[in-house]
Amino acid sequence: MAPTVHGSGAGPVPVATSISDRAGETTAEAEASAPASMDPLSRAIVTLDAVAGDEAPRDHSGSRGRRAEILEAASALFTETGYHGTSLRDISRRVGISHPGMLHHFPSKEILLGSVIEVLEEHAQTVIDDADRLTQSPQALHALFDGALAPTDPRIRLLATLAGEAVSPDYPARFRVARLRRVHEHILERVFAAYEGRDLLREGIDPAFASRTMVSLLLSLAVRESTIRSVQPGAAGAAGPDLHRALDIILAGQGRA
């Protein structure tokens, strides 16, 4: 059963606990409809679900094995050279498939991008599912930044590249990428708000500010790790430690055990 929150009005309001494909509203309309008392993570999901429908439809036809290979290659190339810098022929060459064979699975690059982002959404969903456990222990949050939200994780590196490209108004996945960033921010805001209630957050630190800072730093460090490693390998490897140092500043002396 879905959890509920209590907004203004007649009673409890069901809360979404997963990322869906619901569409048809603007972000502003969805924001206005969300109860003011809704917790940050639930507000993010309800608000940002609304924008997903503007993207290309997702294709699930063809061999699952070959499709997975294409998605893996596309994710790697989108991370390395960006969406605009990668062609379907580049991806087909990396996979070892003909161009017509590529089009059988993904009729356009925009559809392929949508499927790549679907993988990132599934990854975000695993973090959402773990949010309650993260609120119980700062050590669990430190472990998250060594695991699913490590700046060296390929999915975080991909999100960092896509987030940079998505500043363009005509980027085909702009709203879905924005949603992913906001969902990550609100997951952390929920965690930091729980820590604040137990005096585990450094005095004067606002949970929303802390969450935005950590997500911004995470994506920036993912980019730094990718670029610095290619030109100066000896200067790479600081991304993880830097992220934990920043988290220690936010937390009230709650470092890793």
Give an overview in words.
With 257 residues, this protein is mainly alpha-helical. It has a single domain, classed as Tetracycline Repressor, domain 2 (Orthogonal Bundle). Helix content is 60%, strand content 2%. The chain contains 12 helices and 2 strands. Strands 1-2 form a two-stranded antiparallel ribbon. Helix 3 (64-81) crosses helix 6 (109-129). The chain is globular, with a radius of gyration of 19 Å. The protein starts with a strand and ends in a 7-residue tail after the last helix. Residues 1-15, 21-28 and 50-62 have low confidence and may be disordered.
Largest sheet: 2 strands, antiparallel
CATH architecture tag: Orthogonal Bundle
Estimated radius of gyration: 19 Å
Give the overall average pLDDT: 81
Assign the CATH topology.
Tetracycline Repressor, domain 2
Q: How far apart, in Å, are the first and last alpha carbons?
A: 34 Å
Order of the strands making up the biggest sheet: 1-2
Question: What is the number of beta strands?
Answer: 2
CATH superfamily, by name, is: Tetracycline Repressor, domain 2
Percentage of residues in DSSP E strands: under 5%
The count of domains is 1
Helix-strand category: mainly alpha
Low-confidence spans: pLDDT under 50, at least 5 residues? Answer: 1-15, 21-28, 50-62
Q: Can you give the helix content as a percent range?
A: 55-70%
Tell me, what is the CATH class? Answer: Mainly Alpha
Number of helical elements: 12
Envelope shape = globular
User: SSE order, as H and E?
Assistant: EEHHHHHHHHHHHH
